[in-house]
C-alpha cells in the first residue's frame, strides 16, 4: 500500500472511531468588536435543553448563550448545517428570548437542501438582528411533517459600543 493510501485509510478510521460530540455551546468569542458563537444545543420549546436533537416534532430550536458581560450585539450572519427527517423544512428563523419570553425581533433565513434525496440542509444568510443585553439568541427550525431534527448553527456580528 502506498504511503498516501495508508494515511488516508488511517485518517478515515480515526474519524470513524471518534465519538460524536453533541449538545455543546461553543465558546463565546468577542475579538476586536466581532462576536461569534457556535452551538448544537437543541430544544423543543426554545428554553430547555433536550440532548442534542429533537425527536418526533414539527419544530426544533438551536439555543445559544447570552453575550458575555451584558454586551449588546448586532447579529449579522447566521449559518447552520441541519439534518431533518421531514421531507421539507418550511422555515428557519433567528429569534431572541428575554426572561423566558420571545421578543419581537425575528430574522427569516432560507434553508437549502444539499441534494434532492438528502436529509441535509444548509442555511447561510445575512441578517441585522439586534441582541440587547440579557437576550438569548436561538434559531427556530420548522419541518412540514413530524420528524427528527438536529444540527449545528453559528451566529456572528458586532458588539455595540456606547
Distance between the termini: 62 Å
Number of strands: 10
Structural class computed from helices and strand pairing: mainly beta
Oligomer: single chain
* Shape category: globular
Helicity range = under 10%
Order of helices and strands: HEEEEEEEEEE
Spans where pLDDT lies below 50 across 5 or more residues: 1-21
Secondary-structure topology with pairs:
Layout: H1 3-17, E1 29-31, E2 34-39, E3 41-43, E4 54-63, E5 73-84, E6 89-98, E7 101-109, E8 111-113, E9 120-131, E10 136-159
Antiparallel strand pairs: 1-2, 2-10, 3-4, 4-10, 5-9, 5-10, 6-7, 6-10, 8-9
Structure description:
- The structure is a single chain.
- The chain is mainly β and 162 residues long.
- It has one domain: Jelly Rolls.
- 9% of the residues lie in helices and 57% in strands.
- Strands 1, 2, 3, 4, 5, 6, 7, 8, 9 and 10 form a ten-stranded antiparallel sheet that branches.
- The longest helix is centred in the N-terminal third of the chain and has 15 residues.
- It is globular.
- The N terminus is likely disordered.
Keyphrases for this structure?
1 helix, Jelly Rolls, globular, 10 strands, mainly beta
In short:
This protein is mainly beta. The chain contains one helix and ten strands; from the N terminus they run αββββββββββ. The chain has one domain (20-159): Jelly Rolls (Sandwich), CATH 2.60.120.
Amino acid at each position: 500500500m502506498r504511503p498516501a493510501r495508508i494515511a488516508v485509510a488511517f485518517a478515515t478510521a480515526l474519524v470513524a472511531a471518534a465519538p460524536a460530540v453533541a449538545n455543546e455551546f461553543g465558546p463565546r468569542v468577542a475579538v476586536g468588536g466581532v462576536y461569534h458563537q457556535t452551538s448544537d444545543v437543541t430544544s423543543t420549546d426554545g428554553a430547555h435543553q433536550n440532548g442534542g436533537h429533537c425527536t418526533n416534532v414539527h419544530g426544533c430550536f438551536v439555543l445559544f448563550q447570552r453575550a458575555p458581560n451584558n454586551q449588546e450585539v448586532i447579529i449579522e450572519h447566521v449559518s447552520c448545517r441541519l439534518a431533518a427527517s421531514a421531507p421539507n423544512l418550511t422555515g428557519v428563523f433567528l429569534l431572541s428570548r428575554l426572561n423566558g419570553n420571545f421578543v419581537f425581533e425575528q430574522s427569516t433565513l432560507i434553508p437549502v437542501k444539499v441534494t434532492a434525496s438528502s436529509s441535509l440542509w444548509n442555511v447561510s444568510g445575512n441578517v441585522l438582528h439586534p441582541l440587547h443585553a440579557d437576550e438569548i439568541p436561538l434559531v427556530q427550525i420548522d419541518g412540514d411533517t413530524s420528524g427528527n431534527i438536529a444540527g449545528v448553527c453559528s451566529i456572528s456580528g458586532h458588539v455595540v459600543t456606547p
